[in-house]
Amino acid sequence: MEDGTSDGAAATTGVAAWNFAPNEALLGLTGLSVRGVLGKVKAGMVVEDDGRPVVPLGHGDPSEFPCFRTAPEAVDAVAAALRSGEHNSYSTSVGLEPARRSISQYLSRDLPYELSADDVYLTSGCAQAIEIVCSVLARHGANNILLPRPGYLFYEARAVFNGMEARYFDLVPDRGWEVDLDSLQAIADGNTVAMVIVNPGNPCGNVYTYEHLAKVADTARKLGIFVVADEVYAHLTFGEKKFVPMGVFGSVVPVLTLGSISKRWVVPGWRLGWIVTNDPNGVLHRTKVVDSIKSYLDISADPPTFVQGAIPQLIENTKQEFFDQTVEILRQTADICWEKLKGISCITCPSKPEGSMFVMVKLDLSCLQDIKDDMDFCCRLAKEELVVVLPGCAVGYKNWLRITFAIAPSSLEDGLDRLKSFCVRHSKPNM
Ligand SMILES: Cc1ncc(COP(=O)(O)O)c(C=O)c1O
Q: 175 and 312 in one domain?
């Protein structure tokens, strides 16, 4: 500044003090993002030409592996939408009607009632669906949302950024990561607006039964809150339990279902997701939640029009064989993971994953001689073995790890062998 109190650059150029400053709230939020934490884990990793590839067990995007390549029918649908020349314009703010209709029919296959195109709002991946729901609900400082722990911290990041309090209920490891309904009820109050469940689960690999979801619905109904059902991993199940959509309970309690094509079609880069109102009693309309979603969409960017244009063909033409093959590879890699982890003494895995792409494992730090915590473990594992794993702190569970098994089977075996060597090398003597 001209009075000499500012930095040298401003003084020498004769510019007054800068008026701008960043939104400070954002600077603390990277700790709540998988990308932010993985960035720190990978920071010390030096990839040398020694022939050892990096093994990515940290994030849920297997699209780089040929065995997880998307269905040719999906590629054809997008190519045809592009070639048609009919999808070069802006979309409507809620999304193109044929795409919404086709998603409503696709989701209705598993419901006891029919959704209509008007129940579906298109978003830029499931991530934008989360962003919208958290923005729509937040009344600055006046309300709270109930989130699972361990969980997908993007919900907390978006809630907190909008000035809404995030409160955590527990998932119980010994009961297949079911919701602890007592802990849920204990944290709710008159300012609680909604609860989130992720099924199939990230980070736990859980799949909930019809009976458990029915109890969740009854509890939410009793509390007067609605359920946000994150079903981005819908149908990626490979254990005994079949996927049951939360929307089945839409007449007990209103449900906002969030989803996308990112995981089932293995195309996270195509950025096409949805918010769906599963609410045959029209509660979300009467309480104007639906109007707020529409208003939000009016002031935000849309998913690419040509991907929207491809949706009817993509859904109609993708063969069951493709879905079966993806699930079969996940079954195989979940088995590999389960068996190999049993052979690592400082790691315990409470339950075999039955869905999604992840498993949560507990680190026994007392067996390790020079590792401080989960973050330290992951940073050193990345540096020494070029294996990237997500520390539990990134999912709200200190001193656990989240391991992704959705990679090529041979790479997974290699990565888990290196994880074992690391643990052996750092074990206390006689362990
Ligand atoms: C539980 C959960 N919800 C939402 C998302 C975001 O999905 P999308 O890639 O469709 O934005 C992810 C991505 O990994 C996720 O794991």
A: yes
- Closest by alpha carbon to 100, among 264, 302, 244? 302
How far apart (Å, rounded) are the C-alpha atoms in residues 64 and 9?
Answer: 46
What is the model's pTM? 0.95
Tens digits of residue pLDDT in 84-118: 999 999 999 999 999 999 999 999 999 999 999 99
In terms of residue numbers, what domain contains 280? Answer: 72-317
Q: pLDDT tens across 183-214, in order?
A: 999 999 999 999 999 999 999 999 999 999 99
415: enclosing H helix or E strand: helix 409-426
Q: Which residue has the tokens 């314009």?
A: 89
72 CA from centroid of ligand 1 (Å): 23
Residues with CB under 6 A from ligand 1: 60, 125-127, 152, 198, 202, 230, 232, 260, 262, 268, 273
| DSSP-assigned beta bridge partners for residue 179 | 171
- Asked if 215 and 346 sit in the same domain, the reply is no
Ligand 1 midpoint to CA 83 (Å)? 29
Same domain, 231 and 124: yes
78 and 202 both lie in a single domain: yes
Report the pLDDT value the prediction gives residue 3, as an integer from 0 to 100: 40
